[in-house]
Amino acid sequence: MEDRLFNKAYDYIKDKIDSNCWPPGTKITEQLISEALFMSRTPIRTALLLLEEEGMVKSIPYKGYIVAEKKISNEGLLERLELIAGLIMNYLQYLKENDITLDHKEFEKLLGKQVEYLNYRDATGYFNNEYRLFETFIAQSDNQFMKKVILTTARDIHGTYSDNSDLIDEARYQNEAKLLALYQEVSICIRDKDYDKMGEYLIFFFETLKDSNDILAQ
After folding, report:
1. In this model, does residue 146 exceed pLDDT 90?
2. Nearest 5°: phi and psi at 59?
3. Fewest 10 Å CB contacts: which of 1, 77, 79, 132?
4. Nearest CA to 103 among 142, 133, 62?
5. What are φ and ψ of residue 56, in 5° steps?
6. Which residues are paired to 65 by β-bridges?
7. Nearest to 71 by CA among 52, 59, 56, 81
């Protein structure tokens, strides 16, 4: 009887998450599930514990559970990086042909903050700021598909790293320092509107991400 209730609770919660009926960040209330399934909270609590082990939910001290950010797989990351690399090369060609200037001052300002976050090993600030770097870089594109793919991938990768322990790890820290050095080269290219050189740096950037995909994805 208890196993049947547990399975029912587990399947109910997982289906809500998989169908995106409960997107990442949604608070999960045991009481509401209990009322929806007409069962006690005990099997629901057991189901949530298992779902937490599987990375689908996250427990918040004194607050209960929320739906966790979805983690991107190694294979999925590599496929998306291949797609994004092609989209970015087309974007650079568009910028060059139309003599479009990117917001260098804003990019440089965000880059300064990125250096500070890395030096303080503040993973939350670092990854949130990196997302804003991406937004600034692609702001001149009218390709909504490209924007969605890039920003969704950034959210998925950053969602994998949710606390400051990520940059305390020395290998992870050194990897981000290497990527940050490439951002700084890209910043110079943005200032000089040297989109050909920028393309070379971004190709190296994507290759660096691929080489470190065992760190970037679980």
Report:
1. no
2. -85, 135
3. 1
4. 133
5. -90, -30
6. 28, 59
7. 56
| Rg, Å, the chain Cα set | 21
CB 88: neighbour CB atoms within 10 A? 21
Longest CA span, the chain = 69
Sorted by sequence, the CB contacts under 8 Å of residue 85 that are 6+ apart come out as 202, 203, 206
Q: Which amino acid is at 187?
A: S
Are the beta carbons of 19 and 70 closer than 8 angstroms? no
Distances (CA, A) of 196 to 4, 52, 100, 114, 216: 61, 46, 14, 25, 27
Is 183:133 a contact under the CB 8 Å cutoff?
A: yes
Per residue in 8-37, pLDDT (tens digit) is 999 999 899 888 889 888 999 999 999 999
Cα angle at 193 between 187 and 196, to 5 degrees? 90
Q: What's the rounded Cα separation, in Å, for the pair 214 and 22? A: 28
Identify whether the C-beta of residue 163 lies closer than 8 Å to the C-beta of residue 124: yes
DSSP 69-124: PPPPPHHHHHHHHHHHHHHHHHHHHHHHHTTPPP-HHHHHHHHHHHHHHHHTT-HH
Read off φ and ψ for residue 122, nearest 5 degrees: -90, 90
Tell me how far apart the alpha carbons of residues 25 and 121 are, in angstroms, rounded to a whole number. Answer: 24
CA 44 to chain CA centroid, Å, is 29
**Confidence band of 216 (pLDDT split at 50, 70, 90):** very low
